[in-house]
Specification:
The chain has two domains: 219 residues, Tachylectin-2, Chain A (5 Propeller), CATH 2.115.10; 216 residues, Jelly Rolls. The strands form seven sheets. Strands 24, 26, 27, 28, 29, 30, 31, 32, 33, 34, 35 and 36 form a twelve-stranded antiparallel beta sheet that branches. Strands 10, 11, 12, 13 and 14 form a five-stranded antiparallel beta sheet that branches. Strands 15, 16, 17, 18 and 19 form a five-stranded antiparallel beta sheet that branches. 2% of the residues lie in helices and 49% in strands. It has 521 residues and is an all-beta fold. The structure holds (Z)-L-Arabinonhydroximo-1,4-lactone. (Z)-L-Arabinonhydroximo-1,4-lactone binds next to strand 6, strand 10 and strand 15. This is Beta-xylosidase. GO terms for molecular function: hydrolase activity, hydrolyzing O-glycosyl compounds.
């Protein structure tokens, strides 16, 4: 099995099997569009077919802080419709159920379900068709923020959008911290309650209980947790937050779950954040036994080139706004036009459109024209942790500033690139202007990540990838990627790299991603 099955920032997976086809939804936090839907016929090859939240009003996350917003959906199919339930944190909507006939979309505007206070909702139906929401009673806002009330459940009216009873406490794990991510399902004579516990960091684990009905009472398995990497010398850590599905061709059942790929001997840093993995389970005496989660990335390279005549590809992301409202495709045909937001990548809602870094060895390339403004290419964790290459036309060439921002620390390197250095190959011959200064402001920018050859990292490089910031072929900075990892940024997301504008108008004529897996441990 190839693992991760969804590389790059894709935490909190929920999976459903409908007519022999698998679909997964994952969390997107402050990014839009929200809630990507992936499709597979074999659990190996996955394709993103759309997003649930393509209209910002569906989520209301304009003001959601980084790391808040869309947390942990559950994707199910019932009565001929796909249902996705999610609790949107840091926004007005709370618990929302979206439905669609086709998981590629369009999805409806969603029905809010009143009376549910927590995170990680699951949606399940009993044999009589009654709907139940099971969730983690973790409070994220208001005076009780930060308090935990275990796994809870309510019967709901999905049409009226309300809970029909007071929350009922259910089995909440083995005593590890943060019982969350519940999923309820029936198998044979039992109803099962699958949960995560131990927290989404190194203590993360998956535990299970079973009982006679959807409401329980549930009692825990004799050998919980059924999955954890805590304390194991494994290159995938933090495994947890699982959902269960039947395997292809009548094979073993499969757990999809989140995990992080950690680098180096200390295995302390994961550049890409929480990704989606899978592992198989076998059943003994009515209890599942899971095989350890392994890292087995797909071999080979991926090269993607975007001509920027459309933003139809569902993998584009913007922050708190839709990519279409951040970038214009009509102002300069064939190019993406961005209007600067003061502060650039430090802004709460920067003018930024990007894509997930999915491979540990990667190159993002953008050709920008900053003759009428300032902007360029950036790798973002959030407004406090990012790297950027900001270009600005100066009449004779392009001034490029590379900036590394790491919480309150910031360092910049600036260089001037003469217009003549622009690789001629990027400009169709007919468009090469006679006077070189007219090229001022145009430059190819690149952010490369790579892993040191095994055994060459040394103690100071242990666990690091290297990040190179390159403008017009000149490397302005080479940085230790540990500072832009999910552990250092204390982030629920991962690296998203893309184009931005901080002043005036910046156009982008080309954007490319190249990714390749390298052996690591
Ligand atoms: C998710 C929850 C979690 O809702 O992280 O720490 C949240 N645990 O299960 C965001 O991914």
């Amino acid at each position: 099995m190839i693992n991760p099955i969804l590389p790059g920032f894709h935490p909190d997976p929920s999976v459903v099997l409908v007519d022999g086809v698998y679909y997964i939804a994952t969390s997107t936090f402050e990014y839009l569009p929200g809630l990507p839907i992936f499709r597979s016929h074999d659990l190996v090859t996955w394709e993103q077919i759309g997003n649930v939240a393509t209209r910002p009003e569906q989520l209301g996350i304009e003001q959601a802080a980084s790391g808040m917003g869309v947390w942990a959906p559950t994707l199910r199919h019932h009565d001929g419709r796909f249902h996705l339930i999610v609790i949107v944190t840091g926004g007005p909507r709370g618990c929302v159920v979206f439905t669609a006939e086709d998981p590629a979309g369009p999805w409806d505007d969603g029905t809010e379900i009143a009376g549910i206070e927590g995170i990680d909702p699951d949606l399940a139906w009993d044999d009589d068709g009654n709907a139940y929401v099971t969730y983690s009673g973790f409070i994220t806002s208001g005076p009780a923020a930060g308090t935990h009330h275990g796994i809870q459940q309510v019967r709901v009216d999905l049409t009226a959008g309300k809970a029909l009873e007071e929350p009922r406490p259910l089995w909440s794990g083995t005593g590890r911290q943060f019982p969350e991510a519940p999923h309820v399902f029936r198998r044979g004579e039992f109803w099962y309650l699958l949960i995560a516990e131990g927290g989404t960091e190194r203590g993360h684990a998956v535990s299970i209980a079973r009982g006679p009905s959807i409401t329980g009472p549930f009692s825990g398995a004799p050998a919980n947790p059924i999955v954890t990497a805590a304390g194991y010398d494994s290159p995938v850590q933090c495994v947890g937050h699982a959902d269960l599905v039947a395997g292809p061709d009548g094979g073993d059942d499969v757990l999809v779950l989140l995990g992080v790929r950690v680098l180096g001997r200390t295995k302390a840093f994961s550049p890409l954040g929480r990704e989606t993995f899978a592992t198989t389970v076998t059943w003994h005496d009515g209890w599942p036994q899971a095989r350890p989660v392994r890292v087995l990335p797909s071999a080979g390279a991926v090269s993607e080139s975007f001509d920027l005549t459309s933003l139809d590809d569902p993998g584009w992301l913007a922050i708190g706004r839709s990519p279409e409202s951040v970038g214009s495709l009509t102002e300069a045909p064939g190019r993406l036009t961005l209007h600067g937001v003061t502060g650039g990548m430090r802004a709460f809602r920067p003018a930024f459109i990007g894509r997930r870094q999915r491979h540990l060895t990667s190159t993002f390339t953008a050709t920008v024209d900053a003759s009428r403004g300032a902007g360029g290419l950036a790798c973002r964790y959030d407004e406090h942790f990012h790297l950027s290459l900001e270009a600005r036309g100066d009449g004779h060439g392009t001034t490029v500033t590379a900036t590394a921002k790491l919480a309150d620390l910031e360092q910049s390197w600036t260089t001037q690139i003469p217009a003549a250095h622009l690789p001629a190959a990027q400009i169709p011959a007919a468009q090469i202007p006679a006077a070189r200064p007219e090229l001022a402001g145009q430059v190819e920018l690149r952010i490369e990540t790579s892993l040191p050859a095994p055994g060459t990292g040394g103690p100071e490089g242990d666990g690091a990838d290297r990040i190179r910031l390159i403008a017009g072929g000149i490397c302005l900075a080479e940085l230790d990627g540990r500072y832009w990892s999910s552990e250092t940024a204390a982030s629920f997301t991962g690296r998203v790299t893309g184009v931005f504008a901080s002043e005036g108008t910046v156009t982008v004529s080309h954007f490319a991603y190249h990714g390749q897996e390298t052996p690591f441990c």
